[in-house]
């Protein structure tokens, strides 16, 4: 049980401990550097984004929420309407797509249907190479994860790898549920290991009635950040990235971001590692 009065202190401790945890190996005790002496690059701090209102841009990109899903036939019809749109034909859009891709970003995000990278980042076709899975995990034992990392770094030569978590992440919230299927338990084992270290800070304790909703949200948000930070750390120590960093000229940085479901803002949680 988490005593109500200590929640703020726990969150403060958690915040202070993030960089230390990231480097300590506590979050992933089984992770071993792939090289005898891994290259550890300094963290990069970016200037904060300056908030400014621009109603024209917001209006231009507002998604059409009035169009409900009506079945697969409707999906195919929508596709034809879009593909045949005169505005796309005029700029020879599909000729451009046919020429190939050269994205600078490799995005590792959650499979959640509400977190659509191209939309929330306002980037388009050919601009983000994307890998998505439940709770935005990087798993070096997963052929899918590893082949995408290799392709992104060695073939496409992306300059940024972004691990993007999000608030209200059901995968993160339920990672420690004992009733998960064996596959989900295995997939979310990183988060379960954090629970073993800090059991009082986990979502399965968030049902504790002495906590306010705002306190539960803060704990969940911290867990989302720790999860992102952990994945950034694992990618940085992976052989593919380590090899790329041996090239002194190579620009490659790994970033941790969180998408806030409440207001749509992407936030850099300041755990960037790499060269730019
Ligand atoms: Zn999620």
UniProtKB/TrEMBL annotation:
It comes from the Eukaryota. Pfam families: Pro_CA. This is Carbonic anhydrase. The keyword Zinc applies. GO terms for biological process: carbon utilization. It catalyses: hydrogencarbonate + H(+) = CO2 + H2O. GO terms for molecular function: carbonate dehydratase activity; zinc ion binding. Its EC number is 4.2.1.1. Zn(2+) binds at residues 110, 112, 166, 169. Belongs to the beta-class carbonic anhydrase family. InterPro entries: Carbonic_anhydrase, Carbonic_anhydrase_CS, Carbonic_anhydrase_sf. SMART domains: Pro_CA. Keywords: Lyase, Metal-binding, Zinc. Reversible hydration of carbon dioxide.
């Amino acid at each position: 049980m988490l005593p109500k009065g200590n929640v703020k202190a726990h969150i403060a401790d958690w915040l202070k401990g993030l960089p230390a945890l990231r480097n300590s190996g506590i979050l992933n005790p089984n992770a071993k550097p792939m090289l005898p002496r891994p290259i550890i690059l300094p963290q990069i701090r970016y200037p904060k984004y300056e908030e400014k209102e621009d109603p024209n841009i917001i209006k231009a990109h507002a998604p059409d929420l009035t169009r409900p899903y009506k079945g697969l036939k409707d999906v195919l019809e929508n596709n034809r309407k879009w593909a045949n749109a005169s505005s796309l034909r005029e700029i020879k859009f599909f000729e451009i797509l046919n020429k190939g891709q050269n994205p600078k970003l490799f995005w590792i995000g959650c499979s959640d249907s509400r977190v659509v990278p191209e939309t929330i980042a306002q980037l388009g076709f050919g601009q983000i190479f994307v890998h998505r899975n439940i709770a935005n995990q990087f798993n070096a034992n997963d052929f899918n994860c590893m082949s995408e990392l290799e392709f992104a770094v060695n073939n496409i030569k992306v300059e940024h790898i972004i691990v993007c978590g999000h608030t209200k992440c059901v995968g993160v919230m339920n990672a420690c549920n004992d009733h998960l299927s064996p596959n989900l338990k295995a997939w979310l084992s990183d988060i379960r290991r954090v629970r073993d270290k800090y059991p009082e800070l986990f979502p399965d304790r968030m049902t504790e009635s002495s906590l306010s909703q705002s306190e539960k949200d803060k704990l969940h948000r911290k867990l989302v950040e720790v999860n992102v930070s952990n994945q950034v750390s694992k990618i940085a120590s992976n052989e593919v990235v380590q090899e790329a960093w041996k090239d002194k000229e190579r620009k490659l940085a790994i970033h941790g971001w969180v998408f806030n479901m409440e207001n749509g803002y992407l936030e850099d949680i300041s755990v960037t590692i790499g060269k730019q």
